[in-house]
Specification:
This is NADH-quinone oxidoreductase chain F. By secondary structure, the chain is of the alpha/beta class. The protein is built from 26 helices and 15 strands.
Length: 638
Amino acid sequence: MTRWIRSARSPNIRSVLAKSKKFTCKEGIAMITTENIQEVINNRGKAREHLMAILRDLENLSGNQQLSPETLNAVAEAMNLPQSTVAGFVGFYTMFSTRPRAKFLIRVCKSGPCHVMGARTIFDYVEKHLGISPGQTTADGLFHLEACECLGICSVAPAMMINYDLHGNLTEERIATILDGYRSREPFFGEACGPEVEGRVCMLDEPGQTQRLTEKIGSIDPLSVDSYLEKGGYAAIKKALAEYQPDDVIAIVKDSGLRGRGGAGFPAGVKWSFLPKGDMQKYVICNADEGEPGTYKDRILMEENPHGLLEGMMLCGYATGATVGYIYIRGEYRRSIERLQRAIDQAREKGILGDNIFGSSFRFDIFIKEGGGAYVCGEESSLMNSMEGKRGYPRFRPPFPAGAGFLAKPSNVNNVETYASVPMIIEKGAAWYKSVGLETCTGTKLYCLSGKLNRTGLVEMPMGTTLREIIETFGKGIKNGKTFKFAQVGGSAGGILGPELMDLPLDIDSTIKAGVTLGSGVVLVCDEDTCPVDFLLDVLNFFEHESCGQCVPCRVGTRQLHHLARKFATGTAVPGDLDLMVEKAKLMKNSLCALGQSPILPITTMLKYFREDFLRHCDPSLCCPECANSLAHYYRGH
C-alpha cells in the first residue's frame, strides 16, 4: 500500500499560508481559525503519523512561532486524539512552543563547535543589539531569542538560525547587519538560508582527497534531475533491475564491506538481509536526523546531491522488497528538505519513482518526515516513534526494526552517507569499493572538521586516515599559531584524543580499541586556550538538555552529572567528585538507548588527560574566566 504524503511546502499548503491573515485574538495571543486547522489537516491527512507536519504548518500560520493551547485542543478534537497526547507531543520537541515568541525566532547555537568558537560572545552581541536576553522578546514583537543545540553548520561556527534561515561565521558587525535586514522583510519558509552555509561552500577543496561520495558535487545541479542523469545518475538502479535479482544486490553490498556510517558501524548488507522475504508492506527509512554536535556531512550530501540519496534508497527497496521509503530529516535543515522534495517531485515526473520503474515491475516511492528538535530521535526506534506522531522515546528491543519497525512493519534504517554509498557499489562493483580503506573498514569516510583550525570543512578520505593528516594537511594546522590540546571525535557522544593519539587511524574499530568512537565522523579540534572543565560542562549540559526522560538512569544521571560539572566550574567541587562523576556515568550505561550510555566516554577520556585541571578548579581562586563566562550566559537557567 502506497502512503501519499505531501511536502510541507507543497502547493496546497502554500495556499493555506496565503490565507494566514485569518486570526482571532484572545488576551493578546494570536490564534488560528478552525478553518485554518481543518484545511491543514485535510491537506496532510488525519492519521496520527501526520501530526508533526500538521503542527509545523500551524506554527508557521500563527505569525508568532506559537502553538497556543486552544490551537492544540482544536487539533486534538479534529484528529480524534486525546488533548494530553497532542500537548505531550508538543512538549517533547524543542522546536515547538505553546507560548508566543515573535515574528522572527533567533536560535543561537551553544553546542561544542560553536561553544569553542565563541558562542558566548554571540549572545552578548545579540543582547546588545536587541536589548533582550534568552527567553525574551523585543518590545515590537519582531525578535525572540533562544539558545539551541547544534544546527549542523559547524564548519562556519559560531552560528545561529532565524526562523529557518541559517547564518554562520558570525561577528558583531555581521549580526547587526543580519538582524537589521530582517526588520524590513516578511517571514519566509522556503529555501532561504545564508549563502555561507550552503553545502558546497562547507567542503574543503584541498587536493589529495579520495572523492567518491562527493565526486559529483559541484558538477551537477542539485535542482535538476536531468543534470544528475547526464552525469550517470540512476545508472546503478537501472543496472540492478536489468542484471541482478534482489538477493544479488544484498550479496554485493555485503561483499563490499560497507558498514553503517551513522555511528554503530553495523554491516549494511547484513542488516538488509534481516528483513523478511515475501510480499508484505516493508519500509526503507533514511535517518537524516543529523543531531550529533559537529556533524554536517549528511546535510551537504542532501543539499548538493539529493538524487544520490534517493537512488541508494531505491536500491535498498529493490533488494529488500520494500515499496515505500521515508526520509526522516531534522526540522532545522530547511534547504535540505526543500531540495529533497524537489528531487522527489522531479523523479516522480520522470517516472523514476512510482510504478514500473524503468520498464520493470519494481515500484517504489519516497516521502519526507520532518523532525521537531530532539537529539534522541537519531536513535532508530525513537525516530520511528516520532514518525508515527508520538514522543521520540526509545523502544524496548526486541523486536528490532527488521521485524517490527515503522507502524509495526518490517523496516530498514540507515543514514544518508550509508545509502548514498550504495549506487557506486552497484555500478562499479564491490572490489572497486573496497580497494580503498582498511580490510575491516572499507571505502571512504566523510570527516567533519570544526574548531580551532585554520581551515574547517568536509573532507572525504579513505577510512582510517589519521588525526594528524586531517589537522595538518586539510585543516592547515591550529589557528593563530596555537598548539594542539585535544580533539573530540564522534561528537558529544564520542571521546577525547590527546597529542599521543595524533597518529591513530580514524576508523570504526581502531577508535573503539583506543577507548573512543568514530561515530558520525566529527573532528572538533581544541587549542591550548580551551578549558577542559568548561568543555566538559558544555557536553554534560547538552546531555541533560537532550535526555528524553524515559529511563530513570538517564533522566536522573544527566542532571547529576551536569550538577557535578557545575561544581568544578564554580570552584565548589571536592576531589572525590571526580570519582563520583565516573561512578554515576557507569550506572547510566543501564539506560535504554545510546544517549544515557554515552557520557561515560567524554568523562573518562577527558579525565585521562586533564585530571589536574579539574583538581585545580576545586579551588575557587583558580577557576578560569571561560567557566565563569559560560555560567553567566547559557547555563544560568540550570
